[in-house]
Design goal:
25% of the residues lie in helices and 30% in strands. The strands form 10 sheets. A 6-stranded mixed β-sheet has the order 9-2-1-21-30-28, with helices on one face. Strand 13 and strand 14 form a beta hairpin. The chain is α+β, with helices and mostly antiparallel strands and 432 residues long.
Length: 432
């Protein structure tokens, strides 16, 4: 039975584990519980079709992710997960300029040709906009797209993990460290003969090598803790095989390890002699409780002309966001006065009706980005048994479930649903 370990339990890792649970593989999900995980903070808008981004590779992922939600949530519901956090409520893309509204409508009509899930497209005047979302300011027209949706990232993640556990996936909490065998055995020799294919066949004075590299000694001294420090003729060995992970001091072997660690991925890959070029952006997201807003769970998501957004959930819960903070540390999960000023200033200008809302909480998360703001997915070059995806950025909830499925197919040796050349992992890697 194939053993597969998924490191990272955000929406991407949860999806990978859930889809792997449909196979006969033995699957483990490692949850680091990092403060600031993107999924914990996110309240997502599933509406990629109105984006002005010209990168077709990005749009292919986003479109595939939006389309996949209907299939995924239906399957989860059939397995007993009634709360997936997903609701197809439509979207209002706002503007005050009629020309911009017409351009949005044309773009949506064009993209509906190969994405019928967009649904109905219509232009709304100010009165119609206010009727659908009463808290908004005057002056906005909108393009309404009926196929858009909102999703609660925490609820979706929890639903996938719950279903995966019922299917036999084990979940452990703790920081994972990769366990590796350095160097390709076909390139190594002893007395001029290549070493056997499997490390278990290598012997010292007739005895098999110990199970863990830490037990191997040289001249009576243990080898360094991390195999990246082991050298051959003065050169670091930066290729090999990942054999599993160590969590809380316990070693777990695996045939495949899938890294879904978001902003923390570089820390995991650094001991392999790699620099994973993942940057991150801090977002602070405001949650409000509005009094007396019956039917708010059916209100459409709001996409204004600036970089903010507004979502309504059941029972008057509103989510407004978010900040886009660069040059921050992963330890900086503070809610700041400046961040809240930005969100409230823009949020109240967009929707003055929010002024009567009661502050419930502020969530903080780090959106991971890879070079060119294009996600990467695939096998890590030079390292057998190691697969990763990263860089989903602000589209993590749109793309994450779909990409998690692709990761599961890679780990099982199956063909993914999309060509991966455009998203090659090496584009985000540098040797240290």
């Amino acid at each position: 039975m194939k053993k597969i370990i998924v490191v990272g339990s955000g929406v991407l890792g949860a999806s990978a584990a859930y889809h792997l649970s449909q196979s006969d593989a033995q699957v483990m999900l490692v949850d680091g519980r990092h403060p600031g995980r993107a999924t914990d903070a996110a309240a997502g808008i599933i509406c990629p079709w109105l984006s002005q981004r010209r990168n077709q590779s990005w749009y292919r992922l986003a479109k595939g992710g939006a389309r996949y939600y209907a299939e995924l949530t239906e399957k989860l519901r059939s397995e007993g997960e009634s709360d997936t956090g997903y609701a197809r409520v439509g979207a209002l893309s706002l503007h005050t300029d009629p020309k911009k509204i017409e351009q949005m409508r044309e773009r949506a009509e064009k993209r509906r040709e190969d994405a019928p899930e967009i649904g109905e497209i219509e232009v709304l005047d100010e009165a119609q906009v206010r009727e659908l979302f009463p808290l908004l300011n005057d002056g906005y027209m909108a393009v309404r797209v009926s196929g858009a949706a909102r999703v609660d990232g925490r609820a979706l993640r929890d639903a996938m993990i719950s279903a995966a556990q019922r299917n036999g996936v084990s979940v452990i909490e703790g920081e994972a460290a990769l366990s590796v065998v350095k160097g390709r055995t076909t390139d190594m020799s002893a007395k001029g003969e290549p070493l056997p294919e499997h490390a278990a066949d290598v012997t010292v004075k007739g005895e098999p090598l110990p199970e863990h590299a830490a037990d191997v000694v040289s001249k009576g001294e243990p080898l360094p803790e991390h195999t990246v420090d082991v050298t051959a003729k003065g050169e670091s060995i930066t290729e090999g095989r990942v054999t599993g992970v160590t969590v809380n001091g316990e070693y777990f072997p695996a045939d495949e390890v899938v890294i879904c660690a978001g902003a923390w991925a570089n820390e995991l890959l650094r001991p392999l002699g790699l620099h994973f070029r993942v940057t991150f952006q801090k977002g602070q997201i405001l949650h409000l409780q509005m009094p007396e807003q019956p039917g708010s769970g059916e209100w459409p998501v709001v996409i204004p002309p600036n970089d903010q957004y507004l979502l309504a959930f059941d029972h008057g819960k509103m989510v407004a966001g978010a900040t886009h903070e660069n040059d921050v540390q992963l330890t900086d999960v503070r809610v700041t006065a400046g961040g809240m000023h930005e969100v409230l200033d823009k949020g109240l200008a967009l929707a003055p009706g929010l002024a009567d809302g009661e502050l419930q909480e502020v969530r903080v998360g780090f959106r991971p980005f890879t070079p060119g703001f294009l996600p990467v997915i695939g096998r890590v070059p030079g390292w057998e048994g190691l697969i990763t995806a990263n860089g989903l950025g602000a589209s993590g909830l749109t793309m994450g479930p779909f990409l998690g499925r692709q990761l599961s197919q890679l780990a099982l040796g199956l063909e993914p649903d999309l060509p991966l050349d455009d998203y090659a992992v090496e584009k985000a890697l540098e040797p240290r």
